[in-house]
Design a protein that fits this description.
With 279 residues, this protein is α/β, with parallel strands linked by helices. 24% of the residues lie in helices and 29% in strands. It has a six-stranded parallel sheet with strand order 1-4-3-2-5-6, with helices on both faces. A six-stranded antiparallel β-barrel has the order 9-10-13-12-11-14. The protein starts with 7 loop residues before the first strand and ends in a 12-residue tail after the last strand. It catalyses: FMN + ATP + H(+) = FAD + diphosphate.
């Protein structure tokens, strides 16, 4: 945000409505950005730097739901490291001027890479595009960094962000999701840049419920850092597959219906998967 302005959130669906008319040119960061991990932060910060240097608006374009939900015809809704509301909050803190959220459905899934560039980048007066080295777009993911350069030639410049790794393992949402799902939350900060965090709503004395589509850590007991409206403390919690979280030793935490933040520090007696490097 520039000068304390509030981030503008713009929802788009295909076909794009005709009244879309950006006030000025922008730098656009492209990606799904689940987790907004270290590599995502590098990409978004680069876009912010270009926007400041070129005196352009700083924009981000993401999609919802995850493309896999539609392309793979998944019956169950996907779980996320950062549900949309949380992702919006992170982008706002990072100084984004406009956040474009494109509804991912069958219409957008069948859009050619060329038409995507015309409808969603050129039309929005994008002058610089910032994307990861492995960014894919368009029908069946046929578009990539090279096609982005060709299809945007004369309209915008493409900035490719290189791969970031930790101990030879690519920093990605996929790796973080694996770590969280298997309970290895103590390794997550090496990839995410912080401890994994989910929000819970208090439903009874020491029981909280995860109402949003967060990816849950593996069931079990964890050491956590808990943030309420008026206090922060460390405590052991048990999480269940149902989405319930029980604070083990402090029954009087927050009020019923209050939202509480749980930071997952370490699972008790967990062991390291062979496929992931040790911290």
């Amino acid at each position: 945000m520039k000068g304390g302005r509030k981030m503008e959130v713009i929802h788009l669906s295909h076909p794009v409505e005709l009244e879309i008319n950006p006030k000025c040119s922008c730098v656009m960061a492209l990606g799904f950005f689940d987790g907004v991990h270290i590599a995502h932060q590098s990409l978004i910060n680069r876009a912010a730097w270009i926007a400041r240097t070129e005196k352009l608006n700083f924009s981000v374009m993401t999609f919802y739901p995850h493309p896999r939900q539609v392309v793979d015809h998944l019956l169950q809704p996907m779980k996320y490291l950062t549900p949309l509301r949380i992702k919006e909050q992170i982008f706002s803190r990072m100084g984004v001027d406009q956040l474009y959220i494109v509804q991912f459905n069958e219409n957008i899934a069948t859009l050619s890479s060329c038409d995507f560039v015309k409808e969603y980048l050129i039309r929005l007066q994008v002058k610089h595009v910032v994307a990861g080295f492995d960014y894919r777009y368009g029908y069946r993911g046929k578009g990539n960094i090279e096609t982005l350069r060709r299809e945007g030639a004369g309209f915008f410049k493409v900035h490719e962000v290189r791969k970031l790794s930790h101990k030879y393992q690519k920093i990605s949402s996929t790796v973080i999701r694996q770590l969280v799902s298997e309970g290895f939350v103590d390794i997550v900060p090496k990839y995410l840049g912080k401890h994994y965090e989910i929000m819970g709503i208090k439903i009874s004395q020491n029981v909280f419920y995860v109402a949003e589509p967060f990816l849950l850590p593996k069931s079990g007991v964890y050491l956590t850092k808990i943030d309420t409206v008026d206090q922060s403390f460390f405590e052991f919690c048990r999480i269940f597959e149902s989405g319930e979280i029980v604070i083990i030793n402090r029954p009087e935490v927050a009020k019923v219906h209050d939202e509480v933040s749980f930071h997952w520090l370490k699972r008790i007696e967990s062991t390291l998967p062979a496929s992931v490097g040790c911290s």
